[in-house]
Amino acid sequence: MPLGRILVVDDEAPVREVLTEYFSTEGYAVEAAGNGLEALSAVRGGRADLVLLDVRMPGLDGVQVLRKIRELGTDVPVIMVTANEDVALAKETLKLGAFDYVAKPFDFDYLDRAVAAGLARVSNKGGQAEKEDPWKRLARAAFGATRTMQPAARTSTGERIETAALAAARHAAAGRAAVAAEHLAEMQLLLDVAAEFGDLPAEDRALVESALEAARRSLPVSG
User: Fold this and answer.
1) Do 26 and 118 belong together in one domain?
2) Over the stretch 181-206, which tens digit does the pLDDT of each residue have?
């Protein structure tokens, strides 16, 4: 089962190919669109859990596509993709309902976490079927907790918790239960450290540990 369905929208084929290959290998189902009309068709068809949307495109540009997506009444998260010179414009799209923005060349660690956070938000709004998926529950709990941390704590510990949660989910999806269990153990250690230094409130820690235990129980028993 894929971690989520990502729609990559960019008029440049090399960018579409890089993002499609990267997120496919990371365990996501990826669809690519070369223009705004194709993107809107995919969103209307319910084929995307999250959209990576280029700001600068001929015809309908990314800002126009974002507006039309929001006019459709869908709350699918949209992450704007921009060149460095357009970062100011990308920041403005947050006011129009974009979830986040990333600049080229890509910082894939940041992009990874932004995508997971966007999908975790969707899972949080989902129904019982979403709640029954222990790996989406784990991502939702981890990203929700780390985003309440102070900046220094999130940089030193929170981002490592996020990375471990993503790695555990991917290895579990690939059938590598032993490796997934190692990342869950790393998460537990990081949670203990964060709690010891007062960086993670007891309530948030309890939510993450509950999700972590559910994910651990979902792994096949070796032997």
Assistant:
1) yes
2) 999 999 999 999 999 999 998 888 99
Same domain, 88 and 174: no
Confidence of residue 105 (pLDDT cuts 50, 70, 90): confident
25-35 tens-digit pLDDT:
988 999 999 99
Domain-terminating residue out of 68, 89, 124: 124
**DSSP letter for each residue of the chain:** --S-EEEEE-S-HHHHHHHHHHHHHTT-EEEEESSHHHHHHHHHTT--SEEEEES--SSS-HHHHHHHHHHTT----EEEEEEGGGHHHHHHHGGGT--EEEEESP-HHHHHHHHHHHHHHHHHTS-HHHHT-HHHHHHHHHHHHHTTS-HHHIIIIIHHHHHHHHHHHHHHHTT-HHHHHHHHHHHHHHHHHHHHTT-S-HHHHHHHHHHHHHHHHHSPPP-
- pTM equals 0.68
Q: Residue 134: which domain range? A: 128-218
Number of domains in the chain: 2
CATH number at residue 77: 3.40.50.2300
* Residues 158 and 182 reside in one and the same domain: yes
